[in-house]
Every structure is written in structure tokens, then in C-alpha cells.
Amino acid sequence: METIQTGARTSVVETRSSWRKTDTMWMLGLYGTAIGAGVLFLPINAGVGGLIPLIIMAILAFPMTYFAHRGLTRFVLSGKNPGEDITEVVEEHFGIGAGKLITLLYFFAIYPILLVYSVAITNTVDNFMTHQLGMTPPPRAILSLILIVGMMTIVRFGEQMIVKAMSILVFPFVIALMVLAVYLIPQWNGAVLETLSLSSVSATGNGLWMTLWLAIPVMVFSFNHSPIISSFAVAKREEYGTEAESKCSRILAFAHIMMVLTVMFFVFSCVLSLAPTDLASAKEQNISILSYLANHFNAPVIAWMAPIIAMIAITKSFLGHYLGAREGFNGMVIKSLRSKGKSIEISKLNKITALFMLLTTWAVATWNPSILGMIETLGGPIIAMILFLMPMYAIAKVPAMRKYSGAISNIFIVIMGLIAISAIFFSLFR
Q1: CATH 3.30.460.80 matches 21-429
Q2: DSSP collapsed to 3 states, the chain
Q3: pTM here?
């Protein structure tokens, strides 16, 4: 490998060709944030419409998610000063007023999902202790506190520890998911092949195009890792300088290939082992695919694996979403203080944010409200706007982003973003 040294900086040749341990760690961290508990519902939502919509979604999965996240990464990297997160870059490009508004929206798109995960981890562990271990779980307030403090302890050690913990948790999750997908192969049947017709109606009564339209948001949020993108871009810019964009694109590409291959294999294996009516029944019962498979095949192996996979998935996603929620909360506080001519040390602010997150997630996990699904859905349009539309708008309006204009992928992402937002609103008000 050709290496040219200029002072302390490594040459462009080496930077572009080398792959560092930190790149692998971030690749797995991106995967860990995206592939969470949502993947356990993806086979139901994606497969209930039959095989043709599922095949189309498998084809769309990589370009739709890769180009969108690459656009958001480029947006964060377009800031003048290294170390600027998404909230600072928005203010730089769109002004103080827009900066405050988008920072507020960014926080309220991610923070409710953090609350969802705090409830989900408590319910999953409580259920596992009761049914699989035969134990009486401690009172909900104590159990949720222990679990959230455990996850927040990882947070306390800083961003690098969060990413490292997530990258480690990816391995048991992927292995368990692939073992389960292979375990289901003997159960594959031809029931879903009966839906191989463009005029076929899904088990839920929708035609092909309606099924596809409503499934796009499910795909977006099953592969969404926008909460960690800003931290990822800032860290790589610090590490690679002017070569950060090409390096980030490469890391994102590998992460998305890994996501699509593992998740779609799991989805197809689940769908091929059940009939469309089974998937419609699972959707009606509002349970994960693992719970339905365990009941359907009367399989103790799946009954044991389900909560373990769910616990790993939820923990990974909680940590990744924490980075985004902290960034949004910090941004709101910093902008509020700045307008009053004040400032605060980032280390002190991180401690205040951690305390706020701990108390609120614990309170919600103890309360266990049933409206969290709605909160997560309401956050959906905001995430789609920030992930799909804002970077594309910036390409048209911001000089620093103008170099990315003219690509067909930009039009594709705008169309997919509008489809996702319209489908979410349709689902909400139907």
C-alpha cells in the first residue's frame, strides 16, 4: 500500500484504501441501532400482502435506506466547523429560528422511541422471568429501575463505549436471527406462492399497490438508524478530516448490505413457513413473529429464543436512540441558553441530560401506558422528513451541498420520503 506522510497526516491514498477497527465498530453500531425490536414485526407487516410486495420491498430495501442515510450523513458533514452535530448544522444552514424548530422536532421524533424501548425491555424481562424461568419478578418499579440503570451505566462511559457495546451485542443477535431462519427451513411450504399474481388481494383485503404503499413506512423504520447518524458523521470527520464523506459512504454501504441480507433472509424464512392468513392472524393479535411462531409450531426452542432475541434487540436500539435523543435535548438547552447570552459545559449538560432520561424512562416504564405505539407512529412523519426530505432540500438550497445535486438517487429519495409520509398519515387517520 502506498503511504505518503505530510506531517502528522496520512495520505489520501492510504486513508481511502485502509479499513480501521473503528470503521468496523461504527458499521456494527449502525446495524445495531437500525435492527431492533421492529424487525420482529417486519415479517408480519411485510409478508401479509403476499410474495410480490415482499419481493419488491426486498429490491427497494437497500437503495431506499442507503441513499437516505447517506444524504443525512452528508448534511451533517457539510457544516463549516468539525464537531458540529446535526442541530448546529441545521442552524448554520437554515438560520436560528429553523434551527430551534428542527432541533425540537428531531428530539420529539427520537425521544418517544426511547420511552417505547424502556417499556418494551421491562415487559420482555418480566414475561421471561414469569414464563421461562418460573420466577416471581420484583415489583415493576424496581425491575424497570434496575434495567434502565443497567443500560444507562453503559451510557455513562461515553459515546465510544455505547458504540462498542452495540457492536458487541450485534453478534449474538445476528446469530440468533440466522439460526432461527435456518431452523424454519423444514417448515417452508407453498402457501405464499398462491399470492403470485399482480391482481391478488392480501389477507388483509388490500390490493398490491395499497399493500406496497402501507408497507413502505414499515421498511423505513425497520432499517432506520438516523438517531446515530449525526454522532457517526462527527466522529468520522474528526478521524478522517476531508476524506470523511467517502469513508462514511463506504461504512454505510457495508452496514446496509449486512442489514438487508440478514433481515430479508429472516423475513422470507418466516413468510415461507406460514400462510398469508397466519400472518394476518398475527397482525390481528398484535404480537411479534417470534411469539406467533412459538404458538403456531408449539416450539419450546422459539419460546426460549424469542425473549432473548427481543432483549438484545431492545438494548441495542435503546443505546443507539439514546445518542440521538441526547443530541436533541442538548441542542434545545444550548440554543435556549445562547439566546439569553449564556452557555454551559458539555460534560455538565450530559449529566443533566442523563438524569432527565433516567427519570423519565423509568417513570414511563413503571407506568406502562398502552399509547406508546401511537406516540411512535406520530414520530414517524418527523423522522421521514428529517431523514428523506431535509437533506434533499439542503442539496437544492445550501451551497456546501450543491455538489451532490443532479443524481437520480435524489429524486428517488424524495419520492420514497413522500410515499412514506403519506402512508403514515393514511394509516393514522384511516
Answers
A1: no
A2: CCCCEECCEECHHHHHHCCCHHHHHHHHHHHHHHCCHHHHCHHHHHHCCCHHHHHHHHHHHHHHHHHHHHHHHHHHHCCCCCCCCHHHHHHHHHCHHHHHHHHHHHHHHHHHHHHHHHHHHHHHHHHHHHHCCCCCCCCHHHHHHHHHHHHHHHHHCCHHHHHHHHHHHHHHHHHHHHHHHHHCHHHCCCHHHHHCCCCCCCCCCCCHHHHHHHHHHHHHHHCCCHHHHHHHHHHHHHHHHHHHHHHHHHHHHHHHHHHHHHHHHHHHHHHHCCCHHHHHHHHHHCCCHHHHHHHHHCCHHHHHHHHHHHHHHHHHHHHHHHHHHHHHHHHHHHHHHHHCCCCCCHHHHHHHHHHHHHHHHHHHHHHCCCCHHHHHHHHHHHHHHHHHHHHHHHHHHCHHHHHHCCCHHHHHHHHHHHHHHHHHHHHHHC
A3: 0.87
